[in-house]
Structures are given as C-alpha cells and as structure tokens.
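Deliverable D4.2, example record:
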Amino acid sequence: MADSFKTAGQAGCWDGYMNTSPDLTAARRFLASSARVLDQRRFERLRDGGDAAPVRDAVAAYRNTDGGFGHAIEPDCRCPGSQPAAVGMALRILDEADAWDPRLARDACDWLERNAAVGGGATFVEPGLDAWPHAPWWVPEDGRPASLIQTGTIAGTLHARAMAHAWLDRATEVMWARIDELASPGAYDMLGVLTFLDRVPDRERAQRAFDKAGPLLLDCKLVELDPDAAGEVHGPLAFAPRPQSLARQLFDAQTIDAHLDHLARAQQDDGGWNFNWFAWSPAAAVDWRGFLTVDAVSVLMANDRL
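Output generated by the structure prediction step:
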C-alpha cells in the first residue's frame, strides 16, 4: 500500500542536531484541534493524570445494545454495527487507561461468544459492512476462520485483566494451537500472536512459544530494522513497544534506541503523529492521527523518553 503521509517531520533541527524530545504542548493543541474526544481523554489520563471515568464514558459511547462496539472506534471500520476489531479497540483503550469496566468487558465477551469464529476466537471482520464506508481490506473471510490479529489482541487484553469467560477459554486454545503450527505468518498475524504471548498468564509456555514463533519476524522479513525506511513497514516498536515485550529479545539496545529516536522526531509541524499506510478516507485519517499521537506519547513514556 502507498505511503500516504510523510512519516518523520524535520521540525526540531538546530545547529545540525536533531531534537528528539517531542513538544507535548504542541501535541495537546493538535489533539484539541483535530482529534476525537476519546483520544483527548486518553491523553489527559496518560499524560496529565486525568480521571479514568471520562475515558470509560468516551469508550462506552461506541457501545451497541448487543454488547459489542462499532461506530468507527476502530477508524478503518466506519459502520455502526459491532465488529471484532471495534471490540478489540474498546477493550485496549479501557485497559491502557486503567479505566476497566467489568460490565462492558463481560457484555463484549458475550457478543464475541455469540459471533465466534468457527472453532473459536474472533473473525477478522463480520458481514454487514457493504452498506457502510470501510477500508478496502475489511473483507469477511470465507468459512469464518479465527483471525490471529483479532483473536490474539482481544484475548491478550482480557488475560491482562484476569477476565474469566467461555469465549476467552476457547480463544486461548485456538491461539496456542495456531502458534504451534505457525510457519509463514503476515505482519498483522504476528502482532496478534505477540500481544497474546506478552499477556497470557502461563509465562513459561509463552516463552517457549515465543522461542519458536518469535524468530519468524526476522526469518519472514516482517520487521524493518531501518528506522528511516519509507512505505508501509513495521519497525521493532510495532512488535515490542515496551521494555518488557517478549520481542525485545530479538533486537539489541542500539536498534531499539534508533527507532525510539525516530519515533520521537516523527512529530509533525502541527504537533501530531502520522501513519504510513494507505489513507482511504479523510475521516479515518484524522481519527488515526489522533489515536497514534497518543500512542506515540505512550510508547515514549514507557521507554523513559518523556
């Protein structure tokens, strides 16, 4: 897919040196002018020590009466109906902001159970998008198989919150089985796999599974080690955003530092961060920039860069 935006702004150069300390005042202004209330509340919670309740309430605004989530909380899927990716995004935000709501989570799991993939887990996308704007890659798969990206990310979040639910039990079995047979995954498959392995309670089994599956990132050329590479690439921080991420075992400190430097200086002149995949919708592009601006600040904070 084409690179729709520049991925690293040049603001911050002075006397030949690159400033790698982002301007958080500019980031705050960008969010106020261009981001969803949801992402403004995330930033307030993350950076300013704001209350968790507004984040919870902002997430709940995307909830449907069936317990699932929709309404473009996941910016590329702009239908009102519930979708696995929207559930995953909602739960991720509740978790990261420590705004967890057991009732919202339980109702979301009930929706996942009613709409489970064949054999368990979550599909990549559920039918019903045709009448609504959505990214061209949001296509239901024949046979409704479990998606590694959706199943892994949702299950990982639920495990991190010690959730107990029948959907999670079966999804966990699906993930272990799929990881055991993993041979030639895609980058998004590995994002789901690693999110699951980072957070599943059985740490010994997770490490063993990572020892087998983790090197596929390099063997299958899924990770881009050059921080200045253009196009829709995935750097080490995509797979190992935090120091405790299992995938940090694959990269030396110099590589991680280079990518953190790149992330820090990728702040744009307007104060926000951009993305490097195809921008199919102006509304989705705006929403993603707000989400990823908060995400960039979160990763830099977790790595002691802010």
